[in-house]
Design goal:
Layout lengths: L1 E2 L24 E3 L41 E4 L3 E9 L2 E8 L4 E4 L9 E7 L2 E5 L2 E5 L4 E4 L6 E5 L3 E7 L4 H20 L5 H17 L4 H12 L10 H4 L7 H8 L1 H9 L8 H6 L20 H15 L11 H10 L7 H13 L8
Helix pairs in contact: 2-3, 2-8, 2-10, 3-8, 8-9
This protein binds fe (ii) ion (2 copies).
């Protein structure tokens, strides 16, 4: 089966450019052909003003799709997905990926679907165990069925055609809508801006890359980092926005946002990120919450988010204290290496800090 590209990164070869998370807050959907072309010729207009494509009317069985048009389009900041045609269980989808965008195909137990990716333009990297296979215009990749995770990354702007012998586009729409709804929920609560979620996700992903996490683990990390405080949606406003200190009882409720966050993603496409939401306040020495886990008992991805979130919080103005400078915050993180934070995560974080200006991206 296919899964939405989960993370995007700096364009390949452009060191120092900030990692970007684009999928969650930039989604839009359009059932009409894109502007600039007539779309599908000879097809009757549908009730919403779009263009109906199936079934084709008698005498108009042959349709022409002009460049840049599809029967349904999903738009993201760095990716566009167009359903070109569907019928007899087969779908043909055109995808346009910006440089650095990741995308993947995953096994779907019980499915024997034929899946094929054909490169129209650009260069797509397929990360295959220890080697990277570059796919260029005219190259195709066929799986029947997909038996293992296939991870791709656009090395340049890429246009590709994706064929699947069973319907997948509606799955795309559903996934995108779920992600968008969760992103909005995070934004409206606790005064958090999507910028904060972006920055924690970006920084976490950079640390994960530095630690050489697998592409799939990076995708889960990015989801978990972006949604780390999703559970605060269930915390009452009078506790969440209380100006003074919380009572013991209120604090106990606040801490529950970790557990609630995991529960909220349990039956969604980002369920794999649940343990990150649950453990992002655990600390290396066992002083965190909700479980007081210590050391390697805490999922590595959660420990990465812990460092990134702490850093972003330190470098942001709070009512009770002014922001720290980037250097001060980095020093504080290093000071608690092996105490509050996983030593290797701190080392990876410090390495990034010495080579890139990503630390300017906080908020
Ligand atoms: Fe939190
Ligand atoms: Fe946060």
């Amino acid at each position: 089966m296919t899964r939405l590209a989960s993370i995007t990164e700096r364009p390949a070869g452009e060191a120092g450019q900030e990692v970007e998370w684009t999928e969650l807050s930039s989604f839009s959907r359009d059932k009409r052909p894109l502007a600039g072309g007539p779309g599908i010729e000879d097809a009757p207009a549908s009730a919403d003003g779009g263009t109906c494509t199936c079934p084709a009317p008698a005498g108009a069985a042959v349709q022409v799709l002009r460049r840049g048009t599809g029967t349904e389009t999903l738009e993201f900041e760095r990716m566009r997905i167009m359903l070109l045609a569907q019928g007899d269980g087969m779908e043909v989808i055109r995808q346009e990926l910006s440089p650095g965008t990741r995308w993947g195909l995953y096994p779907d137990p019980g499915s024997g679907a034929l899946e094929m990716v054909a490169i129209v333009s650009g260069t797509l990297a397929w990360y295959r165990q220890d080697e990277t296979v570059l796919l260029r215009p005219g190259d195709s990749l066929v799986a029947h069925p997909v038996r293992e995770e296939l991870s791709f990354q656009a090395k340049t702007s890429v246009h590709l055609l994706y064929f699947c012998s069973r319907p997948v586009f509606s799955l795309y729409s559903q996934q995108a809508e779920e992600m968008r709804a969760m992103a909005v929920a995070v934004e409206v609560k606790d005064g958090y801006t999507v910028h904060h979620c972006h920055h924690v996700a970006n920084l976490s992903t950079r640390i994960g890359e530095e630690m050489r996490l697998s592409p799939d683990a990076l995708a889960v990390l990015n989801h978990g980092a972006f949604l780390h405080d999703l559970g605060k949606v269930r915390v009452p406003d009078n506790i969440l926005t209380k100006p003074g200190a919380l009572t013991e009882e209120e604090w106990a409720i606040m801490k529950m946002h970790t557990i609630w966050g995991r529960e909220m993603v349990e039956n969604t496409i980002v369920a794999a990120a649940g343990p990150i939401l649950e453990a992002h306040h655990e600390r290396w020495d066992g002083s965190g919450y909700p479980h007081g886990w210590r050391g390697d008992r805490i999922p590595l991805e959660a420990q990465i988010v812990s460092v990134a979130d702490s850093y972003c919080a330190m470098t942001t103005d709070r009512v009770y204290r002014p922001r720290l400078s980037q250097d001060q915050a980095l020093q504080e993180i290093r000071q608690f290496r092996g105490v509050l934070y996983h030593p290797e995560v701190v080392d990876a974080f410090a390495t990034i800090g010495s080579t890139a200006d990503i630390f300017s991206a906080t908020g």
